[in-house]
Write a structure and sequence with these properties.
The strands form two sheets. The chain has a six-stranded mixed β-sheet, with helices on both faces. By secondary structure, it is α/β, with parallel strands linked by helices. The structure holds adenosine-5'-diphosphate and magnesium ion. The site of adenosine-5'-diphosphate has 12 residues, from β1, β2 and α1.
């Protein structure tokens, strides 16, 4: 999937005052690229990621996925597009405490009606779980897993519907160094092996170093470095 941003700007209105967070960002991200976005707290990283994830459509400029302008899709089409094409990972894992590891990963597939597709997702889930060394823990609940294990589970959950684009907002922000390294390597290998475009917002120099490209968000602009 190729992402194109043309003059994307975003201003938050708070009553009489307004805050210009993104100014005329123009950028193209090829499929299979991995991109790190760094920048100080409050610089607009999450704002940008929400726009790229089509969660926020209140911006000026044009965002295209494979040449399709996101703003031309109605809400229903957009939700369908998002579920199918985009995987999200956040700083905290957002796993459901009452579901075990495997059930959490299969949650996004519950809406599938096709039995074959369901079966395929299950097989895929087990392969992915195995590949990150969590096979012994599939029956365990989030409360019985470490932070790193929960985050690896969240990465697999984001991948279960085979997204073309994976967006991660500070995915290692709450992990110790070793777990952060594991999750970073997992993200980088997903990008390489599964051809999933990856955009990671991070404070971590190590994590940014695992991506093909890095940009810094400064005064609403992305600067390549
Ligand atoms: P980052 O993720 O880089 O820390 P954010 O994108 O969360 O930055 O926020 C950028 C700026 O926009 C901050 O000054 C923040 O306070 C402001 N902001 C974020 N969300 C809103 C909102 N919904 N309404 C008003 N201001 C917001
Ligand atoms: Mg943020």
């Amino acid at each position: 999937m190729i992402l194109t941003l043309e003059n994307i700007s975003k201003t938050y209105q708070n009553g009489a005052s307004s805050l210009n967070v993104l100014s005329n960002i123009t950028l193209s991200i090829e499929s299979s690229e991995s991109v790190a976005i760094v920048g100080p707290s409050g610089s607009g990283k999450s704002t940008l990621l929400n726009i790229l994830g089509t969660l926020d459509t209140d911006y000026t400029g044009i965002l295209k996925f494979d040449n399709e302008n996101i703003k031309t899709l109605n809400e229903q089409k957009l939700a369908k597009f998002r579920n199918k094409k985009i995987g999200f990972i956040f700083q905290t894992h957002h796993l459901l405490p009452q579901l075990n590891l495997l059930e959490n990963i299969l949650l996004p597939t519950l809406i599938l009606k096709d039995k074959n597709l369901k079966k395929q997702s299950e097989t895929r889930a087990l392969e992915l779980i195995n590949s990150v060394g969590l096979f012994d823990k599939i029956k365990q609940y989030p409360g019985q897993l470490s932070g790193g294990e929960c985050q690896r589970t969240a990465v697999i959950r984001a991948l279960i519907n085979k997204p073309d684009l994976l967006l991660a907002d500070e995915p290692t922000g709450s992990l110790d160094n070793e777990s952060a390294d594991n999750v970073g390597n997992l993200l980088a290998s997903v990008n390489k092996l599964q051809n999933t475009t990856l955009i990671v917002v991070t404070h971590s120099v190590e994590l940014a170093g695992k991506m093909n490209k890095s940009y810094k968000l400064v005064n609403g602009k992305l600067i390549s470095f």
